[in-house]
Amino acid sequence: LIKKMIKKKQQILILYLSNSSLESKVIGWALHNGKENKSIGMPGDMDEPPYETGIDAVIDGWRLFQASQLEQHKDGEELKTGYLKYEFFFEKIL
User: Fold this and answer.
1) Could you give the 3-state DSSP secondary structure of residue 54?
2) 68 neighbors 88 (Cβ within 8 angstroms)
3) What is the pLDDT of residue 57?
4) Which of 17, 25, 66, 86 has CA atoms 20 to 30 A from the CA of 6?
5) Cα end-to-end span (Å), the chain
6) Is the confidence at residue 82, as pLDDT, over 70?
7) Residue 67 to residues 5, 13, 17, Cα–Cα distance (Å)
8) C-alpha to C-alpha distance for 91 and 56, rounded to whole angstroms
9) What is the pTM of this model?
């Protein structure tokens, strides 16, 4: 008897939070969905974030596997805007 091979598929969720705490508000996101045939998703293709906070994603079963390193602001640059600093990567295996 040959068992049917079960293919595992990965979903990647990238959340940008308002600060370094997983309990802070999601301000940007991207969902790359490997469970659908060749559809990986695009950043910004949803009107609303998939979760309010990073911890909500963890509670829903997403595994956190990378968080951005905390870096000290240089004097005088505390209020400058640029890239989204607090980036967290999550995954689900389906």
Assistant:
1) helix
2) yes
3) 97
4) 66
5) 25
6) no
7) 33, 12, 10
8) 13
9) 0.73
For residue 49, what are the contacts with CB-CB under 8 A and spacing of at least 6? 15, 26, 29
Backbone angles phi, psi at 30, to 5 degrees: -150, 135
Question: Is 51 a residue whose pLDDT tops 90?
Answer: yes
DSSP 58: H
Q: Strand 10-17's sheet: what is its strand order?
A: 26-33, 10-17, 86-93, 63-67
Distance CA 57, CA 62 (A): 5
Compute the distance between CA of residue 51 and CA of residue 57 in angstroms, rounded to an integer. Answer: 6
24 within 8 A of 18, measured Cβ to Cβ: yes
Whole-angstrom Cα distance, residue 42 to residue 68? 21
Q: Report pLDDT digits (tens) over 27-37.
A: 999 888 776 65
